[in-house]
Amino acid sequence: MDSKGKGLLSYLLGWLGGLIVLFAFKDNNRKTAFHACQAITISVAQIIVNLAFSLIGTATALAIGIDISFVSLIFSVAFLALSIWGIVKAWQDDPDPKLPVVGDLTEKMFAKKINEYPENAAVGVTPKFDPATGQPVNPAPEAKFDPTTGQPINPAPAANFDPTTGQPVEKPAEEEKPAEEEKPAE
């Protein structure tokens, strides 16, 4: 499943969809994980707000005869609007998945989980890990540096490009300049 589908699944199924995306799919990138965590935040916040207003509404109805539990309906519509906004951002592959208010809360609550994922993981490629160590199998080769100078060992040659065509051109062989003869001092 691609990242758009995972974002859609997260918001449509709420906290359950967010958990499925976080734990069932191993090829997530940071943005997909953020959408999943944000969907969990929206769902849990909606449950808490609805529960609170239902209890407060029942208490006020019993105490003074006025039912204010309809206020939870207003918040439910707001949470639905946030979910739809999240779906749109996920589907359009928006580079900034944060929603107002909820996005900052999600960053604070789920920072550790979100940062477990690479910035741009290859979609559809499941990384392979050694079960004993948890380290990636066949990781990318690390650059080697000369310990005395700190310069890369065997760096890739720098290519020159023709500014008009943009094509690489070979460096012209450097010609040896004849040494200038020293003039006798007068």
Fold topology:
Elements: H1 3-24, H2 30-64, H3 71-91, H4 102-114, E1 160-161, E2 168-169
Antiparallel strand pairs: 1-2
In brief:
By secondary structure, the chain is an all-alpha fold. The protein has 4 helices and 2 strands; from the N terminus they run ααααββ. It has a domain at 3-114.
State the separation between the terminal residues, measured CA to CA. Answer: 85 Å
Shape, principal axes of CA atoms: elongated
Helical residues, percent: 40-55%
* Tally of contiguous helical segments: 4
Query: Tell me about the biggest sheet?
Result: 2 strands, antiparallel
Tell me the fraction of residues in β-strands, as a range: under 5%
Could you name the ranges where pLDDT drops below 50 across 5 or more consecutive residues?
121-127
Q: Helix/strand-derived class? A: mainly alpha
- The average pLDDT score comes to 78
As laid out across the biggest beta sheet, the strand order is 1-2
How many beta-strand runs? 2
SSE topology string: HHHHEE
Alpha carbon gyration radius: 29 Å
Tell me what you see in this structure.
The protein has 186 residues and is mostly helical. The protein has a domain at 3-114. It is 49% helix and 2% strand. The protein contains 4 helices and 2 strands; from the N terminus they run ααααββ. It has helices spanning 3-24, 30-64, 71-91, 102-114, and strands spanning 160-161, 168-169. Strands 1-2 form a two-stranded antiparallel sheet. The longest helix has 35 residues, at 30-64.
From the structure above, extract its key features.
two-stranded antiparallel sheet, single chain, 49% helix, 186 residues, 2% strand, mainly alpha
